[in-house]
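Inverse folding, one chain.
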C-alpha cells in the first residue's frame, strides 16, 4: 500500500511540477546552510516545513500561503496553526509528506534526523537545510526562502527591517560592560547553551558573557557545581511556555552565586529566543534589558 501510494503521489507531483515549469518558467537557485546548492526549475508552490521556526520564517518571507505541511508546535503566526500536520520535527510522517505533493521541503539540520532528510531526498523531493547559528543568519535565511518561494519582494523588505533593528541593538548594547550569564534551557536534565548556539550570539549582542561559551555542544548538560564555580552575575531561564518557570527560583538556595545574591534571576519566553525567526530580536531586546538591570544592581564603587 505504501509503495503504491508513493508511486501515485510522486507521479502526480512530477506532473504538477511540469505544469509549473510552463506557468512560471524561471529557475531559482540558493546555497543552503549545509553548503548544498539547491536549484528549482521554478519557485516552489507547495512547501513543507519540518520545524516550527521554519514555518514562522516562511511566513515572514511572504511564503506562508505556499506552506502545505508543517510539524507540531508550528503556531505562529496564527494562520500557521491551520496547516496540515506531517508529524513532529523528530518523527516525520513520510506517507503524509508524499500525499501533500510538495515541490520543496525545508529541513532543520540540528533538529531533523539526517536519515529522515536523506530519505526525503531519495524519494525525489528537493530539500533545503536550515541551520542559522548567528543572529544575522536569520536575515539571509529570510532572503533565501524568498528566492525559493518567488516572494523576494516581501522577503527582502523583511530582511532589511531585521538588519536595521539588529544594528540598532548592536549600537545600543555592544559596548556595555560584560555580564557573566548562565542561560538555562531546562531543569532536569540541567541544560544550557554552548558556543555555537544562536542564543550565545544573543547574549554577546547584549554585552553578556555566556559562562559556558567554551562548550561546543549546542545544548550541553551541566552540573549545579559547575554553575556555582562559574558564578554567573545573571541567570536567564526560558522553560516551555509563556510563563516564568517555577524552577528558576530553585536557585535561591545557592546564595553564594552572584546572580542569586543580587536577585538577577530573569525569564525570557522561549518562543522569543529559542526560535531562529524575526521574533528573535524581541527576545534579544528583553534579554538586553535584563542584563542592564543586572548592571544597575552592581554595588557602587
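Residues assigned per position:
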Amino acid at each position: 500500500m505504501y509503495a503504491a501510494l508513493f508511486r501515485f503521489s510522486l507521479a502526480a507531483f512530477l506532473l504538477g511540477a511540469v505544469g509549473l515549469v510552463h506557468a512560471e518558467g524561471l529557475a531559482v537557485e540558493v546555497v543552503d546552510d549545509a553548503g548544498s546548492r539547491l536549484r528549482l526549475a521554478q519557485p516552489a508552490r507547495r512547501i513543507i516545513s519540518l520545524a516550527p521556526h521554519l514555518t514562522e520564517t516562511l511566513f515572514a518571507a511572504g511564503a506562508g500561503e505556499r506552506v502545505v505541511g508543517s510539524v507540531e508546535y508550528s503556531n505562529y503566526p496564527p494562520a500557521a496553526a491551520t496547516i496540515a500536520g506531517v508529524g513532529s520535527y523528530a518523527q516525520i510522517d513520510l506517507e503524509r509528506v508524499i500525499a501533500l505533493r510538495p515541490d520543496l521541503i525545508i529541513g532543520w539540520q540540528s533538529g531533523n534526523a539526517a536519515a529522515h532528510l536523506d530519505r526525503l531526498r531519495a524519494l525525489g523531493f528537493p530539500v533545503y537545510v536550515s541551520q542559522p547559528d548567528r543572529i544575522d543568519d536569520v536575515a539571509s535565511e529570510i532572503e533565501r526562502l524568498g528566492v525559493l518561494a518567488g516572494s523576494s519582494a516581501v522577503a527582502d523588505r523583511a530582511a532589511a527591517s531585521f538588519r536595521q533593528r539588529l544594528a540598532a541593538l548592536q549600537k545600543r548594547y555592544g559596548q556595555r560592560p560584560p555580564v557573566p550569564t548562565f542561560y538555562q534551557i531546562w531543569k532536569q536534565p540541567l541544560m544550557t547553551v554552548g558556543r555555537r548556539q544562536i542564543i550565545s550570539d544573543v547574549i554577546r549582542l547584549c554585552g553578556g558573557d555566556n559562562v559556558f561559551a567554551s562548550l561546543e555542544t549546542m545544548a550541553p548538560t551541566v552540573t549545579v557545581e559547575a554553575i556555582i564555580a562559574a558564578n554567573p552575575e545573571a541567570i536567564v531561564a526560558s522553560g516551555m511556555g509563556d510563563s516564568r518557570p517555577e524552577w528558576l527560583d530553585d536557585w535561591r538556595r545557592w546564595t553564594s552565586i552572584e546572580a542569586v545574591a543580587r536577585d538577577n534571576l530573569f525569564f525570557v519566553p522561549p518562543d522569543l529566543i529559542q526560535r531562529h525567526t524575526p521574533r528573535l530580536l524581541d527576545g534579544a531586546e528583553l534579554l538586553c534589558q535584563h542584563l542592564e538591570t543586572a548592571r544597575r544592581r552592581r554595588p557602587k564603587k
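Residues 1-24 have pLDDT under 50 and may be disordered. The beta strands are 28-31, 37-40, 47-49, 67-69, 104-108, 127-130, 179-184, 208-210, 234-237, 265-267.
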